[in-house]
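Appendix B. Raw example, untouched.
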Amino acid sequence: PAAFRPRAHNHASYASSIEKGRPVLQGLLAIDYLAKEASVLGWAQAIPKFAADLMKYVQTFLERTYERCRTSYMEAVLEKQSYMIIGRHDIDKLMRLDPASACLPNAFSQSNVRNNSSGAGSIDVESELSDLLLNLRPIRQENLIRDNHKIVLLASLSYSLELVQVSPQNVESGKPSQTSSSPARDLALSANEYRKLAIDCLKVLRVEMQLETIFHLQEMTHREYLENQDAEEPDDFVISLTAQITCRDEEIAPFVSGVKRNYIFGGICGTAANASI
């Protein structure tokens, strides 16, 4: 549906406020407004007699919206290597330990981030992740997300989901005391599901860019280089990779903040350095 497709002008700049043009997916924006309205009603206890039914109504819409977002996510990542990789236990563990994950929305234990925030720890985690990804060579083009529209969709989904996941928490905090705890638990679970899917979108994008880097640079193994001779111009695969990074950075710019873009593209340098050794 059109309500779950990204809408933004090309090369538009990111805006943190919806009023200033932040391109949140329309379907998620609608459920966000609904949840916020329910939060206000619950806080004011304007209609306590119907509060529980109202919460169930909001919960139903949250669940249906989540399922639609999950479907869009799966359509973008199905059978792609980056999606399968983030589900691996060893990769997931290292991504949790990676200090770069501190920018994710309440994603991982902050103690892990603090314990691995030192320079040496950061380098070790990044190097180990790169080694695991390099061991997957050769990377095949059909296993990558080549459609930039799907890249944009994942970026848009991530930030829209992150926005909406706050609303169930607000509804829960604003519920009248007469309501049972079951709706509150359901709303908390909804917020957690939205948050996890938002994180998965970002993790897929980060790993995808690392795999793209390996895909382009693995061409080096089929070429010969002279140690003492400077290259007159970059290899064609380097030019192609640079163009790909630039294009995707411009495409997702309206949908993702600078911090999240740094996370998405931040693993490229380490991967490229290890691939060149």
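End of appendix B.
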